[in-house]
Amino acid sequence: MALLWWKRWIAIRTEGGSRADLIDRLQAHFKANGVKSKITLEGSSLKRIHVLQKDESRAKELLAAFDSEH
């Protein structure tokens, strides 16, 4: 069952250390714009945000807008 979960979701950004909080803010940005996302943790300090495959192009647009603001 877990394999099916990963086939639907793609990683869009990974941050670690002091920049890991950007993932939480990015998730809020996605949510405000109607894009579902999930956060996974790797190790003690890496955070990765995933979006549904069908939302990949929209997420990339939102990611570019988010990056230009931060």
Overview of the structural elements:
- The chain has helices at 2-8, 21-32, 56-69; strands spanning 9-16, 37-42, 46-52.
- The protein is α+β, with helices and mostly antiparallel strands and 70 residues long.
- It has a three-stranded antiparallel beta sheet with strand order 1-3-2.
- The radius of gyration is 12 Å and the shape is globular.
Task: Set down the secondary structure blueprint.
Elements: H1 2-8, E1 9-16, H2 21-32, E2 37-42, E3 46-52, H3 56-69
Antiparallel strand pairs: 1-3, 2-3
Q: Span from first to last CA? A: 37 Å
Number of strands: 3
Radius of gyration: 12 Å
Helix content: 40-55%
Largest sheet: 3 strands, antiparallel
Order of helices and strands: HEHEEH
Spatial strand arrangement across the major sheet:
1-3-2
Overall average residue pLDDT: 91
Strand content range: 25-35%
Q: Give me the secondary-structure category.
A: alpha+beta
Multimerization status? single chain
Low-confidence segments, given as residue ranges, are none
Task: Work out the helix count.
Answer: 3
Q: Given the C-alpha coordinates, what overall shape results? A: globular
Which features characterize this protein?
globular; 3 strands; 47% helix; 30% strand; alpha+beta
